[in-house]
Amino acid sequence: MTEQAPIVIVGTGLSGYSLAREIRKQDKDTPIIMVTADDGVSYSKPMLSTGFTKGKDADGLAQASTEAMAEQLNIELRTFATVTAIDAEAHELVVGDERIAYSKLVLAWGADVIRLDIPGNGQDRVFSINDLMDYRAFRQALEGGKRVAIMGAGLIGCEFANDLRNGDYDVDIIAPSDVVMPGLLPPVAANAVQRELENLGVRFHLETVVEKIDREGNGVRLSLANGEQIDADLVISAVGLRPRVELAKAAGLTVERGIVVNRALETSASDIYALGDCAEVDGHVLLYVLPLMACARALAKTLAGDRTEVSYGTMPVMIKTPCCPTAVCPPPTGAEGEWQVEQDGSDVKAIFRGPDGFSLGFALTGRFAVEKQALSKEVPPIHG
Ligand code: FAD
């Protein structure tokens, strides 16, 4: 390592670009190299599940070209460059045959989609959408089609279902759970979202799984464990994400569910940091935008020499199901207490109260979703 080696950031998603922006707010000149496996186009990932509603295709969702980002941020940008290893001792990043020296290395390389190994010859019609390039491929494959089957009833599956209905596609959702978004919403709120999606025309096949996907004409036929068959033009797989930890683990960094970092975003190796979907920050794996923005602000200060710990406030999540606007701030895992529910049809206000009566979380649907800001003030911050 030399004093002159650049800061190297791996990943040009919201974490990587937010961090580069934060660094540049205070330091215009320190050399920064950004390395990314994709095309480096800047976009907001949450917008991927709003394309039809907003009338935008992949190009419409792109916010800035790679060249524009490199210029705007005064950075060197390496695109289609997949990191293959980290040599922590030598302070070098390995990209195939090339070695890139770093003074500080930031891992912002996100999470991988979980892929199910389902039998049948229809796998080439199954799409996972976790970046803009995936979205482009999906939209191209959908041209001329009308029917989409979605595996998974989590946040992403439900958002795509609503968006595809807004684009007038037929939508079937298949999932093993008995409610939508289990683990994120209490059943009363989950049922409200499901009901409104059904009113919009989404068909649910819950408590079952896809056992086989076969080609059928230009599309596929899905065989479900409950005996049903569904014909579709293509399939979205939205069954979950897993922080990318393998390369970090191989380099000797401590990993658990994500790459383990403390509140200063420091990994177990000196001069290596992590944030975003790949990171487990002080025990929290939060695959959302608000946490990564807070991390980017803190880490930029640390990299400038002012070691700063991130402090997570309350982190409500808006679920982009316009047929049933939903906001949720889940209570801490294992928290003692109970849900208190006020309900008017699909308008649900559920507040999770601890034994002392204080609010520890909430789920709001329909007309109650606007109360998100006010209720967020009552919930203690994650880092209290
Ligand atoms: P990513 O955006 O995944 O970026 C990872 C980067 O690392 C990419 O540039 C990739 O090419 C690069 N990379 C990976 N491996 C390598 C390698 N080996 N070498 C080099 N480069 C590599 N969150 C919310 O808070 N609100 C929402 O409403 C919301 N909606 C969402 C809707 C959808 C459809 C999805 C998929 C997610 C949504 N999220 C939402 C989650 C949020 O978008 C993510 O938490 C966030 O975008 C993650 O950003 P990231 O930069 O950490 O990871």
What does this structure look like?
The chain has 384 residues and is an alpha/beta fold. A hairpin with a 2-residue loop joins strand 15 (210-216) and strand 16 (219-224). A five-stranded parallel sheet has the order 5-2-1-9-21, with helices on one face. The longest helix has 15 residues, at 289-303. It is built from ten helices and 27 strands. The chain has three domains: 7-112 and 242-304, FAD/NAD(P)-binding domain (3-Layer(bba) Sandwich); 115-237, FAD/NAD(P)-binding domain (3-Layer(bba) Sandwich), CATH 3.50.50; 325-378, 2-Layer Sandwich (Enolase-like, domain 1).
Give the overall form.
globular
For the sheet with most strands, the description reads:
5 strands, parallel
Q: Which spans of ≥5 residues are poorly predicted at pLDDT below 50?
A: none
Ligand species: flavin-adenine dinucleotide
According to CATH, the homologous superfamily of the largest domain is: FAD/NAD(P)-binding domain
Number of strands: 27
Please name the CATH topology of the largest domain: FAD/NAD(P)-binding domain
Into which percent range does the helicity of residues fall? 10-25%
Rg is: 22 Å
GO molecular function: oxidoreductase activity
Cofactor: FAD
GO biological process, one term: phosphorelay signal transduction system
Organism: Marinobacter nitratireducens
